[in-house]
Give the backbone structure.
Amino acid sequence: METYQDIKNILQSFEPITLKEMDSVELMDRFDFKMLFHMDKLPVILEKLKPFYKALEVKKTRLSKYDNRYFDTNDLKLFLKHHNKIGNRMKVRFRSYIDSNITFFEMKTKNNKGKTLKERISVNAIPDHLREEEKSILQSSMNKEIIESLVPTLDNTFYRLTLVNKKQTDRLTLDIGVNFKNNHGECCLDYLVIAELKQEAHTLSSFMKVLFKEEKIYPISISKYAIGSVLLDPQLKYNNFKDKIIIINKLNHAFA
Protein backbone atom coordinates (compact mmCIF):
# COMPACT_ATOMS: atom_id res chain seq x y z
CA MET A 1 0.00 0.00 0.00
CA GLU A 2 1.18 3.50 -0.82
CA THR A 3 2.32 5.60 2.13
CA TYR A 4 1.29 9.20 2.79
CA GLN A 5 4.84 10.25 1.92
CA ASP A 6 4.48 8.56 -1.50
CA ILE A 7 1.30 10.52 -2.11
CA LYS A 8 2.90 13.76 -0.94
CA ASN A 9 5.78 13.19 -3.37
CA ILE A 10 3.40 12.75 -6.31
CA LEU A 11 1.42 15.85 -5.31
CA GLN A 12 4.59 17.93 -5.37
CA SER A 13 4.82 17.29 -9.12
CA PHE A 14 1.45 19.03 -9.69
CA GLU A 15 1.17 22.72 -10.44
CA PRO A 16 -0.01 24.46 -7.23
CA ILE A 17 -3.11 26.55 -6.67
CA THR A 18 -3.79 28.72 -3.61
CA LEU A 19 -6.99 29.02 -1.59
CA LYS A 20 -7.54 32.51 -2.98
CA GLU A 21 -7.15 31.29 -6.56
CA MET A 22 -9.60 28.47 -5.83
CA ASP A 23 -12.35 30.85 -4.73
CA SER A 24 -13.95 30.84 -8.18
CA VAL A 25 -14.46 27.08 -7.90
CA GLU A 26 -15.93 27.12 -4.40
CA LEU A 27 -19.10 25.38 -5.68
CA MET A 28 -21.35 25.81 -2.66
CA ASP A 29 -24.30 25.06 -4.99
CA ARG A 30 -23.30 21.97 -6.94
CA PHE A 31 -23.68 18.36 -8.01
CA ASP A 32 -21.46 15.78 -6.33
CA PHE A 33 -20.20 12.49 -7.75
CA LYS A 34 -18.49 10.12 -5.31
CA MET A 35 -16.29 7.10 -5.99
CA LEU A 36 -14.57 4.51 -3.80
CA PHE A 37 -11.33 2.73 -4.59
CA HIS A 38 -8.28 1.17 -2.96
CA MET A 39 -5.27 3.29 -1.97
CA ASP A 40 -3.04 1.29 -4.32
CA LYS A 41 -4.84 2.83 -7.33
CA LEU A 42 -4.28 6.40 -6.21
CA PRO A 43 -0.81 6.96 -7.73
CA VAL A 44 -1.99 5.84 -11.20
CA ILE A 45 -5.05 8.08 -11.04
CA LEU A 46 -3.00 11.07 -9.89
CA GLU A 47 -0.56 10.64 -12.78
CA LYS A 48 -3.49 10.63 -15.24
CA LEU A 49 -4.95 13.76 -13.64
CA LYS A 50 -1.70 15.72 -13.49
CA PRO A 51 -1.88 17.34 -16.99
CA PHE A 52 -5.39 18.69 -16.29
CA TYR A 53 -5.43 19.60 -12.59
CA LYS A 54 -3.61 21.76 -10.07
CA ALA A 55 -3.08 20.74 -6.43
CA LEU A 56 -4.30 22.98 -3.62
CA GLU A 57 -1.41 24.10 -1.42
CA VAL A 58 -2.03 25.58 2.04
CA LYS A 59 0.99 26.71 4.09
CA LYS A 60 3.24 24.54 1.92
CA THR A 61 1.03 21.50 2.53
CA ARG A 62 -0.85 19.62 -0.18
CA LEU A 63 -2.24 16.83 1.99
CA SER A 64 -4.42 18.49 4.62
CA LYS A 65 -5.99 17.13 7.78
CA TYR A 66 -9.71 17.65 8.44
CA ASP A 67 -11.69 17.09 11.65
CA ASN A 68 -15.48 16.72 11.55
CA ARG A 69 -18.07 16.46 14.28
CA TYR A 70 -21.59 15.47 13.21
CA PHE A 71 -24.74 16.29 15.16
CA ASP A 72 -27.98 14.32 15.16
CA THR A 73 -30.80 13.51 17.56
CA ASN A 74 -30.33 10.69 20.07
CA ASP A 75 -32.58 8.50 17.91
CA LEU A 76 -30.65 9.55 14.76
CA LYS A 77 -33.49 11.20 12.85
CA LEU A 78 -31.10 12.76 10.29
CA PHE A 79 -29.32 9.44 9.72
CA LEU A 80 -32.64 7.66 9.17
CA LYS A 81 -33.81 10.31 6.70
CA HIS A 82 -30.68 9.61 4.68
CA HIS A 83 -31.11 5.84 4.97
CA ASN A 84 -34.76 6.04 3.90
CA LYS A 85 -33.82 8.23 0.91
CA ILE A 86 -36.11 11.05 1.92
CA GLY A 87 -35.70 14.17 -0.22
CA ASN A 88 -34.33 17.43 1.16
CA ARG A 89 -32.28 15.58 3.78
CA MET A 90 -29.46 17.30 5.60
CA LYS A 91 -26.31 16.91 7.61
CA VAL A 92 -25.27 19.14 10.50
CA ARG A 93 -21.58 19.31 11.33
CA PHE A 94 -18.56 21.31 12.39
CA ARG A 95 -15.46 21.04 10.22
CA SER A 96 -11.92 22.11 11.12
CA TYR A 97 -9.27 22.63 8.48
CA ILE A 98 -6.32 21.83 10.71
CA ASP A 99 -3.51 23.20 8.51
CA SER A 100 -5.41 26.45 7.86
CA ASN A 101 -6.55 26.77 11.48
CA ILE A 102 -10.09 27.50 10.24
CA THR A 103 -13.34 26.01 11.57
CA PHE A 104 -16.87 26.22 10.16
CA PHE A 105 -20.32 25.19 11.27
CA GLU A 106 -22.07 23.73 8.23
CA MET A 107 -25.51 22.63 7.16
CA LYS A 108 -25.55 20.53 4.00
CA THR A 109 -28.85 19.86 2.25
CA LYS A 110 -29.47 17.56 -0.69
CA ASN A 111 -32.65 18.52 -2.53
CA ASN A 112 -35.06 16.35 -4.52
CA LYS A 113 -33.10 17.04 -7.72
CA GLY A 114 -29.86 15.68 -6.27
CA LYS A 115 -28.22 19.07 -5.89
CA THR A 116 -26.13 19.76 -2.78
CA LEU A 117 -26.56 23.13 -1.06
CA LYS A 118 -24.27 24.20 1.77
CA GLU A 119 -24.57 27.02 4.29
CA ARG A 120 -21.80 27.73 6.77
CA ILE A 121 -20.48 30.23 9.28
CA SER A 122 -17.01 30.63 10.71
CA VAL A 123 -16.50 29.62 14.35
CA ASN A 124 -13.50 29.52 16.67
CA ALA A 125 -13.42 25.78 17.40
CA ILE A 126 -15.51 22.60 17.39
CA PRO A 127 -17.78 22.62 20.47
CA ASP A 128 -19.67 19.76 22.12
CA HIS A 129 -23.07 21.46 21.78
CA LEU A 130 -24.87 23.83 19.42
CA ARG A 131 -24.93 27.50 20.33
CA GLU A 132 -27.53 30.08 19.36
CA GLU A 133 -25.59 31.29 16.31
CA GLU A 134 -25.50 27.74 14.91
CA LYS A 135 -29.13 27.07 15.75
CA SER A 136 -30.17 30.18 13.81
CA ILE A 137 -28.69 28.71 10.63
CA LEU A 138 -30.90 25.64 11.00
CA GLN A 139 -34.19 27.43 11.65
CA SER A 140 -35.17 27.76 7.98
CA SER A 141 -34.82 24.00 7.37
CA MET A 142 -35.56 22.25 10.66
CA ASN A 143 -38.21 22.54 13.34
CA LYS A 144 -37.24 23.88 16.75
CA GLU A 145 -37.83 20.61 18.60
CA ILE A 146 -35.26 18.77 16.48
CA ILE A 147 -32.79 21.66 16.62
CA GLU A 148 -32.91 21.66 20.43
CA SER A 149 -32.34 17.88 20.55
CA LEU A 150 -29.20 17.79 18.36
CA VAL A 151 -26.13 16.31 20.06
CA PRO A 152 -22.70 15.09 18.84
CA THR A 153 -23.07 11.59 17.39
CA LEU A 154 -19.91 10.98 15.32
CA ASP A 155 -16.36 12.33 15.06
CA ASN A 156 -14.53 11.85 11.78
CA THR A 157 -10.97 12.69 10.69
CA PHE A 158 -9.23 12.24 7.35
CA TYR A 159 -6.52 13.64 5.10
CA ARG A 160 -7.62 15.37 1.90
CA LEU A 161 -5.86 16.24 -1.32
CA THR A 162 -7.78 18.77 -3.40
CA LEU A 163 -7.34 19.09 -7.15
CA VAL A 164 -8.77 21.94 -9.22
CA ASN A 165 -9.35 21.66 -12.95
CA LYS A 166 -7.04 24.05 -14.82
CA LYS A 167 -10.11 25.39 -16.63
CA GLN A 168 -11.66 25.92 -13.16
CA THR A 169 -14.82 24.01 -14.09
CA ASP A 170 -14.70 21.47 -11.29
CA ARG A 171 -12.92 20.36 -8.14
CA LEU A 172 -11.88 16.85 -7.15
CA THR A 173 -11.20 15.87 -3.55
CA LEU A 174 -9.59 12.58 -2.53
CA ASP A 175 -9.86 11.58 1.13
CA ILE A 176 -7.55 9.03 2.73
CA GLY A 177 -6.90 7.79 6.26
CA VAL A 178 -10.61 8.04 7.06
CA ASN A 179 -11.26 7.47 10.76
CA PHE A 180 -14.55 7.32 12.70
CA LYS A 181 -15.16 7.53 16.44
CA ASN A 182 -18.18 7.71 18.72
CA ASN A 183 -19.40 6.17 21.96
CA HIS A 184 -19.63 2.75 20.25
CA GLY A 185 -15.92 2.63 19.36
CA GLU A 186 -13.47 3.62 16.65
CA CYS A 187 -12.43 2.35 13.20
CA CYS A 188 -9.98 3.44 10.50
CA LEU A 189 -10.38 2.75 6.76
CA ASP A 190 -6.73 3.36 5.96
CA TYR A 191 -6.91 1.33 2.71
CA LEU A 192 -9.78 3.36 1.25
CA VAL A 193 -9.93 6.45 -0.98
CA ILE A 194 -13.17 8.41 -1.08
CA ALA A 195 -13.16 10.60 -4.18
CA GLU A 196 -15.69 13.36 -4.77
CA LEU A 197 -16.05 15.40 -7.94
CA LYS A 198 -17.83 18.70 -7.38
CA GLN A 199 -19.18 20.50 -10.44
CA GLU A 200 -22.09 22.65 -11.59
CA ALA A 201 -23.20 20.21 -14.29
CA HIS A 202 -25.64 17.39 -13.52
CA THR A 203 -23.73 14.72 -15.44
CA LEU A 204 -20.23 13.39 -14.90
CA SER A 205 -17.74 14.98 -17.30
CA SER A 206 -16.68 12.80 -20.25
CA PHE A 207 -13.02 12.95 -19.17
CA MET A 208 -13.84 11.64 -15.69
CA LYS A 209 -16.13 8.95 -17.13
CA VAL A 210 -13.28 7.60 -19.26
CA LEU A 211 -10.66 7.91 -16.51
CA PHE A 212 -12.62 6.07 -13.85
CA LYS A 213 -14.01 3.49 -16.29
CA GLU A 214 -10.43 2.59 -17.24
CA GLU A 215 -9.74 1.88 -13.57
CA LYS A 216 -13.09 0.09 -13.08
CA ILE A 217 -14.28 2.76 -10.65
CA TYR A 218 -17.88 3.91 -10.79
CA PRO A 219 -19.95 6.64 -9.13
CA ILE A 220 -21.61 5.62 -5.88
CA SER A 221 -23.87 7.46 -3.48
CA ILE A 222 -22.14 7.43 -0.11
CA SER A 223 -22.08 9.51 3.06
CA LYS A 224 -19.20 9.44 5.53
CA TYR A 225 -21.63 10.16 8.32
CA ALA A 226 -23.95 7.30 7.39
CA ILE A 227 -21.21 4.74 6.73
CA GLY A 228 -19.26 5.66 9.86
CA SER A 229 -22.40 5.36 11.96
CA VAL A 230 -23.20 1.90 10.58
CA LEU A 231 -19.64 0.59 10.87
CA LEU A 232 -19.51 1.57 14.54
CA ASP A 233 -23.02 0.41 15.41
CA PRO A 234 -24.17 -2.65 13.40
CA GLN A 235 -27.49 -2.56 15.28
CA LEU A 236 -28.52 0.47 13.19
CA LYS A 237 -30.91 0.06 10.31
CA TYR A 238 -28.68 -0.21 7.26
CA ASN A 239 -30.48 -2.15 4.50
CA ASN A 240 -30.06 0.68 2.02
CA PHE A 241 -26.33 0.95 2.80
CA LYS A 242 -25.60 -2.78 2.63
CA ASP A 243 -24.16 -2.60 -0.91
CA LYS A 244 -21.75 0.17 0.18
CA ILE A 245 -20.59 -1.85 3.19
CA ILE A 246 -19.97 -4.86 0.93
CA ILE A 247 -17.87 -2.74 -1.48
CA ILE A 248 -15.86 -1.25 1.40
CA ASN A 249 -15.18 -4.71 2.84
CA LYS A 250 -14.19 -6.10 -0.58
CA LEU A 251 -11.74 -3.26 -1.12
CA ASN A 252 -10.17 -4.08 2.22
CA HIS A 253 -9.13 -7.49 0.81
CA ALA A 254 -8.69 -6.55 -2.85
CA PHE A 255 -4.93 -6.00 -2.64
CA ALA A 256 -4.16 -8.26 0.31
The mean pLDDT is 89. The two ends are 9 Å apart (CA to CA). The CA atoms of residues 156 and 180 lie 5 Å apart. The longest strand covers residues 151-165.
